[in-house]
């Protein structure tokens, strides 16, 4: 907030001022005459920082209420476009944007990494900082740090926290909580979605394509699949993949069910194009029936695990973790776990439990067992407005130093999809993993409708965490409402006789190309290198 020019900061008649002991015969100057400098207090990762050195006086430089501040030096492989890396490129994310500094990404040994990020230009070189336009960043990024310390992962497994409850004991766990989101916004989303149920699919597809500014990204990018591009976008923002690429080392990772191995495709492509000969060693959990991993089976550095069943069987999870950890004798874990949300299920078991809650529980159980100390867990979520979903997220958050929630441009704006990036793994206790697996097993067996995973009273008291989740939910919900209204308007404007328009506009193509250049991704016609394929 700007200073009030009429406010007296300090006057000579103040008793504290008059009683100041002087060691000099020259009295100090009057503070009332000191020039006022407008400053602002930044909000960084859930903490209020000290006064900023920069005066936010221009409209486009107003500090956001919630933002995650980063400094990135995007890596551009030499074989792409002939582009050069941009040094000290700083950007912040939120509804408004400002410059900030990114916490240094963790080292592979899991050591302390709170020092400043060394992404600036060489000493003596000009510091040509250029703020990327907002349309190349993200729809929303919010973040919070784990303030409980490294011992909290053990405390959270105490009886005071671990209170698994059925819907009969606490049915509100599956209902929207106003502490996490405005129920009226969700009702509006449901109303808009119902209004579009009778529209022919061809018209809906045309309206969705025309409404989404970033709809052309998958068709213009040389990477295979929307999942690969989404992970690449998150990597540009937060560096979960690039932060683990060390020259001469091997990036060890787990891909939990991404469609066609799209996450693995991006990870392997990024490592192949990095400097210093980075190798990869991955494990892919193929979802569904046998044959789901055929496309990725060609990769020599990616082991495919096909169980013939989904990932909701404790025995299957145990066998998969055993293979991952058994490859190095169990001494170390992997650097990175990436997970796709809600794999498609068919038949009577296609319930919300399997589609969201149980899948999230099983993915978290794998990550907490497979990661090394200091590792990173990236997964998707489509629902975080109920106490149960927030409890699952909090239990995972408690095992990491930092959690970011990202709404990517690649995601359809009418959906609630968002990426969760958990950085710098502390540890996962046996009790926490057992609790996750037990809850997942009860859901899978169908004899227990989970309403609470841990104490909601405890979780709702974590104000910083709840505020992060609420901020993300409100942002996503408002984006959904705006997008659905746009779709409805476009459907109404479509002629009943003329066929829906196909293809993309010049603006969509232009924006897609700008994003690909900014995010250091290949264009479709530049992706014929074997590095861009899984095989």
Q: What does it look like?
A:
- It is globular and about 60 Å long.
- It has helices at 15-18, 152-155, 183-195, 201-211, 217-220, 226-238, 262-272, 314-326, 352-370, 387-397, 430-445, 456-460, 463-493, 506-518, and strands spanning 41-44, 47-51, 68-72, 89-93, 140-145, 165-166, 250-256, 279-286, 302-306, 334-339, 371-381, 400-407, 418-425, 450-452.
- It is 31% helix and 16% strand.
- By secondary structure, the chain is of the alpha/beta class.
- Helix 9 links the parallel strand 10 (334-339) and strand 11.
- It contains 14 helices and 14 strands.
- The N and C termini lie far apart (56 Å).
- The strands form 4 sheets. Strands 5-12-13-11-10-7-8-9 form an 8-stranded mixed β-sheet, with helices on both faces.
Concise account of the structure shown:
Helices cover 31% and strands 16% of the residues.
